[in-house]
Amino acid sequence: MTLALSQAFSTAEQRAAAHPFVTRLLADGYVVLRAALPVETIHACSASLDKRFRLTPFCQGLFYGGHTKRFGRILRHSREAAELVQHQIVLAIIEAVLGPWCDTIQLNLTQGIEIHPGAPAQFPHRDQDMWSGPKGEVEYLVNVMWPFTSYTPENGSTVIWPHSQRWASDAMPDAGDPGIALTLEPGDVLLFLGSTLHNGGANMTNEVRRGMIVSYALGWLRTFENQFLAYPPDIARTFDRRLAELIGYRQHRPNLGNYEGRSPLILLDGDVPEHLAATDELRPDQQAMVDIFMSQVPHAA
Q1: pTM recorded for the entire structure
Q2: What is the mean pLDDT of residues 147-165?
């Protein structure tokens, strides 16, 4: 599916544009948006991370792999990355998928990934397994893969097992089921559910496969990457306010993730008073119940 972003979308337009992708994502466990951003934007983001990729050592352990490089805190190292993280239609898709189970979504991680020549295939896995809650009832996260180089079946492209979000939560593919190794180009973007079985394929070429994974989770979960250590207030203060909120500088109603009973966004406004009045931040249904209760409570004359 090809997506042209030649205009700014209102909320209604975003939802309308996202709808066919949401349908495909929920049905197949993944969806690809072709030409979601200009190639020049992707190349600029990749170039801004060149030094970080170069200085990052190879991973340790069989899961991450000794021929792979990974690092987080992308927004701290690349101004250009914010455009990818805040892609309007991607966010609209994710809000539609995760919205039934949360009040707000949040950034779960940003991670640069390079799969170098000789890297074997990664162990197939589901990213929802980072949380121990019940599976098959709730979608915990959506992953978003932005290729910085061409992704091919030969150089270690992401491999997806379609419809695996409907399998038992611990089911693995049959020996004769290799999954689908996707072909992606810079500017394309792959979205897949946290319940979808996937892995990084083997890199059988002499080229490095580079990209960035961004994932978004339910707003009440503990995130994979500790966003407040990755982006403390002095760093988050330099971000667009909407990006700071996405990182976690906001409350998930009712008052979850607060600072002194207030939204942590207050920490980005300069000097913060030592003493603050805790302020209700309730869901509409909770506020309605409180209002009804208080209307029935006798008041002193």
Answers
A1: 0.92
A2: 97
